[in-house]
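ugh finaly. both done.
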Amino acid sequence: MAITIIIALLSLTGVIIGAGLHYYFSRITEHEKHLRILKMEAYIDYIRSIGEMEQFGLLDPSDPRRKEAHAKAISSKAKVCACGSPEVVKALAKFESHREPGLTPEKKQLLIHFIEKMRIDIGGNESQVDKESIEAILF
């Protein structure tokens, strides 16, 4: 009789521990997935804002589209700084430190480096896509 009770209690304890571990690891996985989605959205917003800044940068400074593009760029930079890995934020800082207008050859290389860091941060492999392919697609 006592052995039956012990076996029942051990089984119940095992089920409770298993359920607790499943809940814990599910929460961790969901958190990581949510963070990866936030990062991807922030990175995409930033890349989109670069395109808009290039497109509207030639317009008159008082043009509302240029002002809106500038506001989006500031917002997207803040998102990257809030969500991005240290390597991505450092790559963004290097790219943004070059204030000259337009995408100079040096800024293009810094942008490609930034994109490589973004890809690694969201789970990509550095060797999956080479710099030349990214450059051919973007420029």
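ok and the 2nd:
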Amino acid sequence: MLFGIGIIGINFILSIINYYDSGNLFNVLNMMNSAKAGMLFERLNVVNLMGNAIECQHIIFAFHFAIIGATVLISVLKFNYTVSISIVSKQTGFICRVKRIFNRGEYRSKSRIYSMSLISSELYKSLISSKAIYAFIVLAAVKIGISSIYNQYNATYDDAVYKEYMTLLSGEWTEDKSDYINAEFTRMNTALESQESMYNKYKNGNISEEAYLEYIEELNYSLSRKSLFETRIQRHDEYIKKLSDEGKEAYFIYDTGWKKLLFPAFDWTLFGALLLFSGLFVREYNRHSSSNAFADILRLTKKGRIKIMRAKLIVSAGVSAVMAVLWNLADIVIIYVRYELPCPNAPIYSIREFANTDLNLELWQYILFMLILRVLIWVALSMFICTLSALLENSITLITAITAVVLLPGLLSELSLDLMNLLDFISFSKVTDMYLQGQTVLIIYAAAFAIISFLSFYTAKKKWC
């Protein structure tokens, strides 16, 4: 069942990504988009397959037919293998007895030394024994793939022009830079206003063809750049002057890459990984036989109960912190490779979205602060899931409860229910999104989350210990 939930979750994530190419294989083959009739029949979608244009309907049919066939084949083979093993295991004969004798020696040679540390035992049980490590490796690979797609550099003409101007003006504001911006704006206006007069001069033979062609190049230059220059370069110059009057400082900076770092997408793969891992108490309540659950044995003594709970919380916090760091590093490395991140010492006000904040930080300082806060948020969520698993005792109930608490407010806030913004964990985990709504909103949510987590911990401790 968890495997099925994981498959549906991965397909959902792939369906909400913005693809620049409608024929992208991830966009075409995921189940969510395949189920939409509009995508199949509203317009012609083709996929480039080894130089051939193949309609996406044929690709979808062939892919899902192959998946279903492979699943059925694996299920049949696994069932037959399991049955044959169970039949062989019941056989009694000389050969089987000999095999058992040799197997005993093999088992003795492969015996391992068990650690006396509860933390080490919990790590082994939660990652290795439960085979959760394989799920984490798969989710990490999916994370890298999704991050690679989401943070793909879209090489547009507008961004290339924006990068050219911001690289030229990069750094602190000066009078010379402001004069250059005004001169460039005047140059464009002059070229656009002279269009009719220059045509008449060329038509009447007052200017040569070479001079007119030079003017046409200037006109094309102005037409292609004026809109972007007004909305981004000139407005940023005015923005810096306005901030200067308020006692704040901002730089000219090419911020496309920085905005990718500052405004990340919600980490669905990390959420799924923590959801699978952090329910450490659920495993102790699972009954593998008709006898009582293993939790009854673990809770025989009060001192043992306290130590086990402490070990589980430490393992939950430690593993989730490592995972959160690795997941964030994946985004940072991909963005660093694909984008330029100039002027890391620029004031945070250089990003216009932060104009109304009171942060006196440089860009790299805010990025570090944001990453630390994001790691702490994911660690807090992991510990909340861990304590809640001690109360609910069932993985299905736990997943349902956590999904409702974490995702439902975010979905409702998308329906313009402003009150849900105060309960939106999706926005909270991104840090910047909630902070820009107001520092008070971030503090209120952090306080509410801390209170709920404390109540969950207190109740779980009272029940377990």
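summary for the 2nd one i guess: The chain is about 70% helix and 5% strand.
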